[in-house]
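=== RUN LOG ===
request id: a7f3
mode: sequence -> structure
chains: 1
length: 154
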Amino acid sequence: MMITEKSAGAIIWRKQKSQLEYLMIQSQPYKQFPSAWGFTKGHLEGTESNEDAAQREVYEEVGLNPKFDFTFHQVDTYHLTKNRQKEVTFFLAEFIEGQQIKLQESEIRQSAWLSYDEAQKCLAAQNYKEFSYKELQLILKKSKQLSSKQNKIK
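=== RESULT ===
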């Protein structure tokens, strides 16, 4: 019987001087895994929905309450072991000006706002314990298309 662990998180974006930027976080090293750059995410707790977990994890990890767009979601599943898999759902969230990033230092080493190209390069340089960098790059590309459309509406 396959056991599925579920996580959820967000790709947080903002417009800075007419350029879209994405919030990337660098995790603390954990067990045998090195520190890595990626997006905020974490496990669902109890009967929590993906949407609720994403909002909670973003607040816990970076102290933000961005404007979530739950119409965008990307779900990726990968195997942890022969009988265990992980399903991660990412949503798109717009940074709200005036909020301050407050890192959860036990889990997050640092954060950075990066352009799309910088974020893609950052992801490509990683050795992820979970996703391949190509999967995260695809998620970022999809989020760029939607955040660009949303940005034009404003």
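=== NOTES ===
The chain is about 30% helix and 40% strand.
The helical segments are 50-62, 116-124, 133-153.
=== END ===
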